[in-house]
Amino acid sequence: MTKYPFPKIDLHLHLDGSFRVETMYELAQERGIALPGETLEGYRQFLFDRSNAESVNEYLEMFNAPTDVLQDAASLQRITAELIEDLAACGVRYAEIRFAPQLHTHKGLSQADAAAAVLAGREEGLKKNPGIHVNIITCMMCVGPETVNWDANMETVEVCRQFFSDDGIVALDLAGAEGIVPLTHFAPLFAKAKEYGLNMICHAGDSQDWVTVRDAMSFGVSRIGHGHHIYENPELVRKAAEKKIALEICPTSNIQCKTRASYPLHPAKNLLQMGLPVTINTDNMVMARVNLDDEYDHCLNEMGFVWNDLIDMNINSARAAFMKDDLRKEIIAELETFRR
Ligand SMILES: [Zn+2]
């Protein structure tokens, strides 16, 4: 039994950063792909060393090897199913797993094929682990100036629309590097998604300042990936609180990427007190070597949160989640019973 026995929710979790290292090694061997570090232990060490990166963009380099490996339906299905099993084992009740279909099209898969493979993995994982609910988010990517992969991002919008439901692929996100070009350059992609009625999220305000959070909000997103640099603009915090824009805070990832100096200096607790729907998430379970319990430990021991904040933040997650309403009600009611 976990020390946090309430229904836990992870809303911000990247598929290609949350695999089992052994599985990635095995898949690479089968496909004749060399991983950094060469041996299984060497690769494990590489991930550990690089997880304390000098910047977000350096941190993102860790994803190169998994991307090389995950280019076929079988591997995508397997790591999705295994991730669901791992989440269930940690007592997670609901998770939204995100991935960027365009990163898996280097060896013949279409973005739609990649999405179908992840959905097949979801089916498999849910069948084996009936206690957990999982939905999928498709990410557009920022990999340079927006023109570099404009068509691929537009295709991601279309794939999200094609598979969009309240039980499968539930939202569109923009992930990747921040700050290469102004975030507003991506506005037409979000305008298209809005026209289609898709749920929208955007990574912002992590390595970049509050301006990017403001820009993301202008797209009409209901949640911000990270977004903690909104703290430096109290007026914007007030606006976001009014609109109930949820912040997907991933404490360890923020520390590892040096977007916050330390757990005690992270403003998440202040942001919660200022009325923002703050949520706590893992971002990359393998790369960051964390699960939700570890993040809650940091919350209680180093970030100024108390037990009932964890309950409140999971209720925030339930409210901001793209889950069915009956499940939302059930989880919130259960969370309420864990107040101390
Ligand atoms: Zn992320």
Main sheet overview: 4 strands, parallel
Helix/strand/pairing category = alpha/beta
How many DSSP helices?
Answer: 15
**Low-confidence parts, pLDDT < 50 over ≥5 residues?**
none
Q: How far apart are the first and last residues' alpha carbons, in Å?
A: 18 Å
The portion of residues forming beta strands comes to: 5-15%
Q: Strand sequence of the main sheet, in spatial order?
A: 1-2-3-4
Looking at CATH, which topology would you report? TIM Barrel
Named CATH architecture: Alpha-Beta Barrel
Domain count: the total is: 1
Topology order in helix (H) and strand (E) letters: EHHHHHEHEHEHEHEHEHHEHHH
Give the class-level CATH name.
Alpha Beta
Radius of gyration: 18 Å
Helix content: 40-55%
* Number of β-strand runs: 8
Find the CATH superfamily.
Metal-dependent hydrolases
Description:
46% of the residues lie in helices and 14% in strands. The longest helix has 18 residues, at 111-128. The mean pLDDT is 95. The chain has 340 residues and is α/β, with parallel strands linked by helices. It binds zinc ion. Zinc ion is lined by residues 12, 14, 175, 203, 225, 283.
Defining traits:
340 residues; 15 helices; four-stranded parallel beta sheet; binds zinc ion; alpha/beta; TIM Barrel
Report a brief summary of the structure.
By secondary structure, the protein is α/β, with parallel strands linked by helices. Helices cover 46% and strands 14% of the residues.
Mind sketching the topology for me?
Blueprint lengths: L7 E7 L6 H10 L9 H12 L4 H4 L4 H6 L3 H17 L2 E8 L11 H18 L4 E10 L7 H14 L5 E8 L10 H9 L5 E4 L5 H9 L4 E4 L7 H9 L3 E4 L1 H6 L11 H6 L4 E3 L11 H11 L4 H14 L4 H12 L4
Parallel strand pairs: 1-2, 2-3, 3-4, 5-6, 6-7, 7-8
Bound molecules: zinc ion.
